[in-house]
Write a structure and sequence with these properties.
It is built from 3 helices and 5 strands; from the N terminus they run αβαββββα. It is an alpha+beta fold. Strands 1, 2, 3, 4 and 5 form a 5-stranded antiparallel β-sheet that branches.
């Protein structure tokens, strides 16, 4: 009887430890991203995002940050096309990326949000916000940016 109790306790401790550490070991690059699948090729999505920013210049990140959209390598072979948006009301920089997906589709991902124009205050979506804040940030992104880009596609 005591052996079963010891095994139960050990099992429960193991489950508890796994649950604590599971959140800290998310696999892959950008493990907490929020992904959206768009039914257009990446080149078209990037073109529409550029048009969106031209039509809505308030979403362009101020030049003082020295953040620019694009791939981070000179040859343009990097997997992700990095895109930054700006919310002037909240004074926040929104970091996103696109990458090609199967069947001519594109993955558009919301990655993180920086408070203010001084870089280094990034908070990752699905990680650094509480549940309510996270939901609000995703809804704000979808309403202000994603849905308008989808409409143009």
């Amino acid at each position: 009887m005591k052996a079963i109790t010891v095994y139960k306790r050990s099992f429960l401790v193991l489950i508890f430890l796994l649950r604590i550490t599971a959140c800290n070991f998310a696999p892959g690059s950008y493990p907490y991203r929020e992904e959206y699948e768009l039914n257009s090729r990446e080149s078209r999505v990037i073109e529409v995002i550029k048009e969106f920013k031209e039509d809505n210049p308030e979403f362009i990140v101020p030049s003082q940050t020295q953040l620019s959209d694009g791939r981070n390598d000179e040859e343009g072979q990097e997997y992700w096309y990095h895109i930054y948006f700006y919310y002037p009301e909240e004074n926040q920089i929104i970091y996103t990326w696109t990458r090609p997906a199967e069947n001519g589709k594109t993955t558009f991902a919301l990655i993180s949000i920086n408070d203010g124009l001084t870089l280094g205050k990034w908070k990752e979506i699905n990680k650094d916000f509480n549940r309510s804040e996270n939901r609000d940030e995703k809804n704000k992104f979808e309403e202000r940016i994603l849905n308008k880009i989808k409409a143009k596609l």
